[in-house]
Amino acid sequence: MNLKQTLSVVLISTVTTTVAMFGYDSFIRKPGPLQENIGKLPASYAGFFDSNNNIPGQPVDFQAASQASVPAVVHITTVIGSNQASNNLPKTKKNPFGDIFGEDFFDDFFNGPQMKSMPQRASGSGVIISEDGYIVTNNHVIDEATEVMVTLNNKKQFKAKVVGADPSSDLALIKVEAKALTFLLYGNSDNVKVGQWVLAVGYPLNLETTVTAGIISAKARSLGLNSRKSNSPIESFIQTDAAVNQGNSGGALVNTNGELVGIVSAIASPTGAYAGYSYAIPVNIVKKIINDLLQYGTVQRAYLGISYLPDNAPDEEKTKLGFKEGQGVLVREVTKEGAMANSGIQAGDYIAKINGTKVNTGSEMVEQIAGYKPGDKITVSYIRNGKEMTTNVSLKNKTGSYEIVKNSVINKLGAELQTLDKKKATELRVKGGVVVTKINAGIIDDQTRMRDGFVILKANGTETNSIDELNAILAKSPKQITLEGFYPGYDGVYQYPIEIGE
After folding, report:
1. Which of 109-123, 243-257, 367-381, 397-411 has the lowest mean pLDDT?
2. Known catalytic residues?
3. Is the Cβ–Cβ distance between 289 and 100 less than 8 Å?
């Protein structure tokens, strides 16, 4: 290597370690529905580069990948509307005069008036995936936003519409009304190798488009971030040391061929600023999520119907279960109505492969299953007593059926629901109901102060004893509905009126 080449490498290293980092973003897997059967690419296409441009042993040239990705990454700014500040806790006893004067009257008198927070502004990044304006970003970038604005690299601005979002993967799809936009082509995150060079492209700290470089330092990382928004999170992050900061969320992680391999999503930092590692959602997961949002209006999650030893299980638990490293994912339980119920797999077996792809951790297994929908058939290889066997499995949805989940009003509510079982109903002295087990991003979170644990007894005055009954009632309801019920352990009946829109 001559002096000029040496100085070039040093310069690249210096530049890439001084640029900022952040994230909580999403990556894309294979060419998505908007990119399948592309044929002749439009003139504004971001570019696909011959991998031979970067020969092993030679200095890596990032210019082509940068030129391809910068025009396809956008700056997203959001406005989060004002909300009443309250503790959101149900009252221990209903005020007897509440029906006359209103509960808020007595809340203000005894507890002080509720303060309304001023509208807040936030920003992040996004990746254009089609010439007609579809953009991928993180769910946390647009969550609770009342207004979403997109600024292109050429400074043109557009108001964006949220097409759909998925808290479990922290991905969202938005749309601007524009044509002939430069977009990035999906790569294949399954082909990404530890040690490969990648670029992180985004708008950190409200700066202009910023490009940083680094290598893939690990794959299939689970951080527990998405569990804050979902009971069944999808986490299998690509880890890189490319510098990112707050504002990079939703930005692009691209390979040296200019292909999108991930969506920047999170950083590992004690201060909130770049401290060495950032994380991106693999593009293969992104592709599946985006396809579902476009085709079905909601994400089609498939489940194996098992519980397994988590990746971060303590050594004591591993020893107790006789866990053996390197064999796969240890099955702890097979649910009776789950997809694996009749597969032959038992507690104590190790899941080693999904459709021939080896899985060593729970994160790797989740990443593979995330690419399928209910009703899909897969092969699962498992190890029992040192012997590998293979079985066929038809995947099911969360309710235990093979059906595609419709984008019902219940899905728009953004709450995880469970039919109140007969034993619990008897204990609570009610005929039946629907329990709100967790509130995620959605209508209920945006419009009410409902808390987890609320038991829905009626919808628009009609009794509901199951999720199916609730769904049927909501499907026939006008734009506004009222959910009525109670909180176990608290006195009083609570009503939550909500606007469900079109």
Report:
1. 109-123
2. 140, 170, 249
3. no
